[in-house]
Design goal:
alpha/beta; 6-stranded parallel beta sheet; 236 residues; Rossmann fold
Length: 236
C-alpha cells in the first residue's frame, strides 16, 4: 500500500486514447484547407503532419511547442508560405475538433477518479500536450474537468515530462511534498522516471505486449487497468 495525499495522472493512453490518430487530423485539415482555397491531397497533408512530428521527436528536447506552431510548420511542409496568420486559427480549430472526436475514455476512469475523490485524495493531471485548451475540452467532454484540483500541462508550463520542473509545478499547485504524492502513467521514461527523479511514488500502467521484466527504471507498482490503484492507495 502507498500512503499519499495527492494522486497525479498522465492523460493520453492513461485516462483516454485515440483510435485513428494523425489520419483523422489530416482529413480535417484537408477539408478546412480546401474551404480556405487550398485544394490538397489528403495523403500529402498526412505526410506533412508526420514529418513535423518526426522533426520535433528528433529535436530531443523536453520543451513543448504549441499546436499552432505545429500547424504553421505543417503549412510550410505543404509549400504554403504566405499569410499563415489567415490560416492558423481555422486550421487549429479543425484540428482540435478532430482530436476531440477521436478521443475515447477507458471504461474504468470515471469510477476510479470519483472513488479516489470520495476517499479524500487530491487529484492532479500532469500531461505532455501541445494544446492546453484542447486538453481541457477533452476533460470536459468526459465530465472529468471538475474532478481535478490541478492541471499541469506542458503547453502551459513549457516543460515536458520527464523534466523535474513540470512535476514540481504540479506538486506546488497542491501544496504537497514529493513523498506525499504518486504519479500514474503509461511511459516508463516520461512518467515513472520523471516522477521518481523528484521523489514521488510512481505507478506504471503498461500496455499489452510490453515487457515488465528487466525494466530500465523500477516503478513502485505495475498495473494493467486503472481500477487496480484503488487497492494500492490509502490516504494519509
Amino acid at each position: 500500500m502507498l500512503r499519499v495525499k495527492a494522486v497525479f495522472f498522465d492523460a493520453g493512453d492513461t485516462l483516454f486514447y485515440s483510435k485513428v490518430g494523425f489520419p483523422a487530423r489530416a482529413k480535417a485539415l484537408k477539408v478546412k484547407l480546401e474551404e480556405l482555397g487550398y485544394p490538397l491531397n489528403e495523403a500529402d497533408v498526412l505526410n506533412a503532419l508526420r514529418r513535423v512530428a518526426e522533426y520535433f521527436e528528433n529535436l530531443e528536447v523536453d520543451v513543448e511547442f504549441c499546436r499552432k506552431y505545429w500547424i504553421s510548420l505543417t503549412l510550410l511542409n505543404l509549400g504554403i508560405r504566405r499569410r499563415h496568420h489567415d490560416l492558423i486559427e481555422p486550421l487549429y480549430e479543425a484540428y482540435k475538433q478532430a482530436s476531440l472526436a477521436d478521443t475515447f475514455i477507458y471504461e474504468d476512469v470515471t469510477y476510479v477518479l470519483k472513488t479516489l475523490k470520495q476517499r479524500g485524495f487530491s487529484l492532479g493531471l500532469i500531461s505532455n500536450t501541445t494544446d492546453y485548451e484542447g486538453l481541457k475540452e477533452i476533460l470536459k467532454k468526459f465530465q472529468l474537468f471538475d474532478l481535478f484540483d490541478s492541471i499541469a500541462a506542458s503547453a502551459l508550463t513549457t516543460w515536458r515530462k520527464p523534466r523535474r520542473e513540470i512535476f514540481q509545478y504540479a506538486l506546488n499547485q497542491l501544496e504537497v511534498k514529493p513523498h506525499e504524492a504518486v504519479h500514474i502513467g503509461d511511459s516508463l521514461k516520461r512518467d515513472v522516471e520523471g516522477a521518481k527523479a523528484v521523489g514521488m511514488y510512481a505507478i506504471w500502467k503498461f500496455k499489452n505486449g510490453e515487457k515488465v521484466e528487466n525494466l530500465s527504471v523500477k516503478p513502485d507498482y505495475i498495473i494493467k487497468s486503472l481500477s487496480e490503484v484503488l487497492d494500492i492507495l490509502t490516504p494519509i
